[in-house]
Amino acid sequence: MEELTPRQIVAELDRYIVGQREAKKAVAIALRNRYRRRLLPPELRDEIMPKNILMIGPTGVGKTEIARRLARLVNAPFVKVEATKFTEVGYVGRDAESMVRDLVEVAIRMVKKEKMSEVSEKAARLAEERILEILAPSPKRRRPA
């Protein structure tokens, strides 16, 4: 992400999303500003609040796809929820807190998948070595008397 400028982010989104130029530009700038804020020393970081974006518009204009593609671009978790199905805690239906739980679960799965891919090659090699050792053990060495 660090090497992507807002213009490059918009260009990447343009590969998948037609139109919505202003929306793509707004999310690209917001994303870049969040990254730049993380680079600041902690005492300054607390003084600069990140700006959130609320995308509104009719069905089918690309709001969800912009968010999905942006999340994929920066390897961030993404959860799509239908907010009308959520209720206050204590009422019938899903409570709004479950949105956060869903997002955390997606993030955990992403980290697990990343960690598994980091060790899978080594694990396969070690498993193969162990199986070969069991199937064809090396000759035992004699101990000097």
TrEMBL record:
One of its GO terms (cellular component) is HslUV protease complex. It comes from the Bacteria. It holds the Pfam family AAA. InterPro entries: ATP-dep_Clp_protease_ClpX, ATPase_AAA_core, P-loop_NTPase. One of its GO terms (biological process) is proteolysis involved in protein catabolic process. Residues 53-107 form the ATPase AAA-type core domain. The keyword Amino-acid biosynthesis does not apply. GO terms for molecular function: ATP binding; ATP hydrolysis activity; peptidase activity. Gene3D superfamilies: DNA helicase RuvA subunit, C-terminal domain (1.10.8.10), P-loop containing nucleotide triphosphate hydrolases (3.40.50.300). Keywords: ATP-binding, Chaperone, Hydrolase, Nucleotide-binding, Protease. Belongs to the ClpX chaperone family. HslU subfamily. This is ATP-dependent protease ATPase subunit HslU. It comes from Thermacetogenium phaeum. The lineage of its organism: Bacteria, Bacillati, Bacillota, Clostridia, Thermoanaerobacterales.
